[in-house]
């Protein structure tokens, strides 16, 4: 049984006239009649009553028409969905992200992506950078929004955002009374640090920069800022963190003396998905 035989059958069943059906299909009538006969022979049942004046569907033909219409509709939908998926207009995307991306590039990237690809399902998973790297390797996520460096030959990484860090201090902290602050002014005060497990690069940079007194560590920047607001210490954080706890925390610019904070986007080298390419491009253009 061939697809064209089913299409020919539907045309004849809807026209109930072989000449009109042939004209609709843009073929001559004899080949059409032959294909319908072959279809009936294969099924072992008549689909049409024929005489010199009219063509009618048999009861079996009526039921067959109803079912074949469903099959062809499903087939057309499958073809359309496959084409849309190939062009990145349909499908599913699993995206991992570090918590700090929610007040950095993530909101703007998601808004733009969803406006351009409304039929794509985007599933988000908050993960630390090391967990994202492992999830990418295991194909649990398609894209990771994380903190470089990423040391894996299986993954591609591009920096999509680089911003300076600032010093976060509690309101009424003694450092606020000083002018022309230097790194040496920080040595006597306890620090709240983002854990090395979350972002090893920044952790090591801060240690090398000012050898801080570490009073507390936290896994996310939101927690770091919350602990600063509670008076547990001072912290070096990305400039994007200034939107958090602005009434309880003061952010000080150190005139490029502090590290910079980069955000990267990672994906598997062998991932050729059009959706992944589209998401990466939007992330690169959003900064």
Structure, explained:
By secondary structure, the chain is of the alpha/beta class. It has 9 helices and 11 strands. The protein has helices at 3-15, 18-25, 29-43, 59-86, 106-116, 129-137, 200-210, 221-229, 274-285, and strands spanning 48-50, 55-57, 91-97, 120-126, 143-146, 155-170, 190-194, 213-218, 235-238, 249-252, 260-268. Strands 3, 4, 5, 6, 9, 10 and 11 form a 7-stranded mixed beta sheet that branches. Strands 1-2 form a two-stranded antiparallel sheet. Strands 7-8 form a two-stranded parallel ribbon. The longest helix is centred in the N-terminal third of the chain and has 28 residues, at 59-86.
Weakly predicted, low-confidence segments? none
Task: Write the CATH homologous superfamily of the largest domain.
Answer: Periplasmic binding protein-like II
CATH architecture of the largest domain, please? Answer: 3-Layer(aba) Sandwich
Mean pLDDT: 91
Strand content: 15-25%
CATH class of the largest domain: Alpha Beta
Report the total helices. 9
What is the domain total for the residues?
3
Q: Tell me how many strands there are.
A: 11
**CATH topology value of the largest domain:** D-Maltodextrin-Binding Protein, domain 2
- Biggest sheet details: 7 strands, mixed
> SS-based structural class?
alpha/beta
Q: Round the Cα radius of gyration to an integer and report it.
A: 32 Å
What is the string of SSEs from the N terminus onward?
HHHEEHEHEHEEEHEHEEEH
Helix content: 40-55%
């Amino acid at each position: 049984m061939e697809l064209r035989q089913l299409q020919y059958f539907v045309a004849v069943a809807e026209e109930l006239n072989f000449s009109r059906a042939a004209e609709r299909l843009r073929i001559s009538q004899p080949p059409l009649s032959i294909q319908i006969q072959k279809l009936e022979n294969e099924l072992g049942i008549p689909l049409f009553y024929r005489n010199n004046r009219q063509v009618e569907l048999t009861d079996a033909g009526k039921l067959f028409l109803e079912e074949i219409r469903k099959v062809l509709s499903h087939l057309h939908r499958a073809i359309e969905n496959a084409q849309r998926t190939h062009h990145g207009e349909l499908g599913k995307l699993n995206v991992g992200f570090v918590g700090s991306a929610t007040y950095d590039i993530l909101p703007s990237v998601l808004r733009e992506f969803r406006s351009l690809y409304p039929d794509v399902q985007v599933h988000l998973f908050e993960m630390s950078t090391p967990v994202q790297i492992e999830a990418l390797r295991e194909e649990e996520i398609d894209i990771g929004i994380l903190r470089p460096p990423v040391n894996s030959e299986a993954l591609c990484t591009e920096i999509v955002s680089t911003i300076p860090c600032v010093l976060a201090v509690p309101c009424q902290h003694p450092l606020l009374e000083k002018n022309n602050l230097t790194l040496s002014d920080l040595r006597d005060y306890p620090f709240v640090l983002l854990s090395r497990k979350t972002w090893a690069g920044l952790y090591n940079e801060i240690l090398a920069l000012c050898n801080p007194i570490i009073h507390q560590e936290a896994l996310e920047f939101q927690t770091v800022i919350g602990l600063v607001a509670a008076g547990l210490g001072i912290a070096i954080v990305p400039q994007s963190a200034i939107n958090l706890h602005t009434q309880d925390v003061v952010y000080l610019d150190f005139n490029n003396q502090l590290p910079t904070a980069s955000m990267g986007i990672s994906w598997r080298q062998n991932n050729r998905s059009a959706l992944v390419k589209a998401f990466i491009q939007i992330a690169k253009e959003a900064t």
